[in-house]
Amino acid sequence: MDxxxxxxxxxxxxxxxDFSLGKVDVALTPRERFEEFLQARGKRITRQRRMIxxxxxxxxEHFDAEQLLADLxxxxxxxxxxxPTVYRTLTELVEAGLLRKMxxxxxxxxxxxxxxxxxxxxxxxxxxxLIEFSSADLGKxxxxxxxxxxxxxxxxxxxxxGLCLSCRSNRSRxxxxxxx
Length: 180
Prior knowledge:
Helix content is 42%, strand content 14%. β1 and β2 form a beta hairpin. The protein has 180 residues and is α+β, with helices and mostly antiparallel strands. The protein has 2 domains: 91 residues, Orthogonal Bundle (Arc Repressor Mutant, subunit A), CATH 1.10.10; 64 residues, Dna Ligase, domain 1 (2-Layer Sandwich), CATH 3.30.1490.190.
C-alpha cells in the first residue's frame, strides 16, 4: 500500500478488518424481486430456485457455482440440488440484477449487485482473493472522463489485477530459497 498516493489513502482503506460497503435501500426483497422477474417471463419460482436465492442472499461473499452447489448440498434442504438448476438459476439471478458475474482467471465468480453500493475490486492473481473497495476520488475521476467525452456513464466495473502482500512475500521467499 506504500505506492498509494497519500490523498487517496483514507478514501480506500477499510476502517475495520471486516470491511462492509453498506447497503442501498431497495423497494423489494431479493426474493420478491426474483419472483417478479420470473413471473414477467412466465416462469415459476420452484422450491430449488427459492432455496438458491435465499442461500445466496443470506451472505455477502464472492463465490462460484461449484462452491454454491457444495454449500447447498451441505444443507438438509439443498442436499438434492442439481447442478443444471444451480447454473440456470445463477444466470437468471444475473439477468434479474440480483447478482453480478465476473470472469477472473477463466472462472466465473458471482457477487451481490442488488442493494449494494457501487464498488470496485482488487484481484490477487496468486491466491485469487478479491478485495472490495470504494473511492470517492475514483468516482470523481470517472465522472470527469465521462464529461470530457460528453458521455453519460450508467455504471462501471473496475478490477485491478496484481499480487497481494502475502503472495508477493511467498514469491520473494521462494526466489531466495532457489539461490541457496
